[in-house]
Design a protein that fits this description.
- This protein is an alpha/beta fold.
- The protein contains 5 helices and 4 strands.
- The protein has a 4-stranded parallel sheet with strand order 2-1-3-4, with helices on both faces.
- α1 links the parallel β1 and β2.
Length: 109
Protein backbone atom coordinates (compact mmCIF):
# COMPACT_ATOMS: atom_id res chain seq x y z
CA UNK A 1 0.00 0.00 0.00
CA UNK A 2 1.22 3.48 -0.82
CA UNK A 3 1.80 5.60 2.28
CA UNK A 4 1.27 9.36 1.83
CA UNK A 5 2.11 12.25 4.15
CA UNK A 6 0.32 15.56 3.61
CA UNK A 7 2.16 18.46 5.24
CA UNK A 8 0.51 21.80 5.90
CA UNK A 9 3.20 24.50 6.18
CA UNK A 10 3.52 26.66 9.28
CA UNK A 11 2.03 30.00 8.31
CA UNK A 12 3.68 31.80 11.21
CA UNK A 13 0.38 33.03 12.64
CA UNK A 14 0.03 32.16 16.30
CA UNK A 15 -3.58 33.14 16.89
CA UNK A 16 -5.40 32.41 13.64
CA UNK A 17 -4.90 30.84 10.23
CA UNK A 18 -7.03 29.24 7.53
CA UNK A 19 -6.72 25.49 7.26
CA UNK A 20 -6.21 24.32 3.70
CA UNK A 21 -9.52 23.12 2.29
CA UNK A 22 -7.64 21.69 -0.69
CA UNK A 23 -5.47 19.53 1.53
CA UNK A 24 -8.50 18.25 3.43
CA UNK A 25 -10.25 17.35 0.16
CA UNK A 26 -7.14 15.60 -1.16
CA UNK A 27 -6.84 13.63 2.09
CA UNK A 28 -10.49 12.52 1.94
CA UNK A 29 -10.22 11.56 -1.74
CA UNK A 30 -7.04 9.52 -1.25
CA UNK A 31 -8.43 7.75 1.82
CA UNK A 32 -11.60 6.94 -0.13
CA UNK A 33 -9.42 5.37 -2.85
CA UNK A 34 -7.70 3.15 -0.28
CA UNK A 35 -4.40 4.96 0.24
CA UNK A 36 -2.83 5.22 3.68
CA UNK A 37 -2.84 8.95 4.36
CA UNK A 38 -1.24 10.78 7.28
CA UNK A 39 -1.48 14.52 7.85
CA UNK A 40 0.91 16.86 9.64
CA UNK A 41 -0.23 20.40 10.36
CA UNK A 42 3.00 22.22 11.18
CA UNK A 43 1.05 25.09 12.73
CA UNK A 44 0.64 22.85 15.79
CA UNK A 45 4.13 21.38 16.04
CA UNK A 46 7.74 22.54 16.13
CA UNK A 47 9.55 22.39 12.79
CA UNK A 48 11.47 19.32 14.02
CA UNK A 49 8.23 17.26 14.06
CA UNK A 50 8.44 16.70 10.29
CA UNK A 51 11.86 15.08 10.57
CA UNK A 52 10.69 12.91 13.46
CA UNK A 53 7.60 11.86 11.50
CA UNK A 54 9.72 10.89 8.48
CA UNK A 55 12.12 8.94 10.69
CA UNK A 56 9.30 7.07 12.47
CA UNK A 57 7.91 5.50 9.31
CA UNK A 58 8.70 5.55 5.62
CA UNK A 59 6.44 7.46 3.24
CA UNK A 60 6.25 6.88 -0.49
CA UNK A 61 4.88 10.36 -1.16
CA UNK A 62 5.11 13.62 0.77
CA UNK A 63 2.85 16.41 -0.47
CA UNK A 64 2.67 20.07 0.48
CA UNK A 65 1.77 23.38 -1.07
CA UNK A 66 0.05 26.67 -0.59
CA UNK A 67 0.37 30.27 -1.63
CA UNK A 68 3.60 31.73 -3.04
CA UNK A 69 4.03 33.96 0.01
CA UNK A 70 4.77 30.78 2.00
CA UNK A 71 7.72 29.75 -0.15
CA UNK A 72 10.12 29.73 2.84
CA UNK A 73 8.26 27.13 4.94
CA UNK A 74 7.48 25.12 1.80
CA UNK A 75 11.16 25.15 0.86
CA UNK A 76 12.03 23.98 4.40
CA UNK A 77 9.57 21.07 4.08
CA UNK A 78 11.01 20.02 0.72
CA UNK A 79 14.60 20.24 1.99
CA UNK A 80 13.76 18.15 5.07
CA UNK A 81 12.08 15.47 2.94
CA UNK A 82 15.03 15.35 0.54
CA UNK A 83 17.48 14.99 3.42
CA UNK A 84 15.57 12.51 5.61
CA UNK A 85 13.59 10.52 3.01
CA UNK A 86 15.43 10.86 -0.30
CA UNK A 87 13.40 8.06 -1.93
CA UNK A 88 10.04 9.71 -1.21
CA UNK A 89 8.29 11.43 -4.11
CA UNK A 90 7.57 15.08 -3.40
CA UNK A 91 4.30 16.54 -4.67
CA UNK A 92 3.75 20.29 -4.65
CA UNK A 93 0.26 21.71 -5.07
CA UNK A 94 -1.73 24.87 -4.66
CA UNK A 95 -1.17 28.19 -6.35
CA UNK A 96 2.57 28.06 -5.69
CA UNK A 97 2.77 25.13 -8.11
CA UNK A 98 0.15 26.15 -10.65
CA UNK A 99 0.85 29.88 -11.15
CA UNK A 100 4.29 29.42 -12.75
CA UNK A 101 5.33 25.75 -12.60
CA UNK A 102 8.68 26.19 -14.35
CA UNK A 103 9.75 29.06 -12.13
CA UNK A 104 8.87 27.30 -8.88
CA UNK A 105 10.45 24.05 -10.07
CA UNK A 106 13.71 25.91 -10.72
CA UNK A 107 13.41 27.91 -7.48
CA UNK A 108 12.95 24.83 -5.27
CA UNK A 109 15.70 22.67 -6.78
Amino acid sequence: MIRILLVMPNYGKKDYYHISMGMMMISAYLKNKGYEVHCLNQNHHPESRLQACLEEQPFDVVATGGLFIYISPIRAIINTVRRVSPKAKIVLGGTIASADPQFISDELK
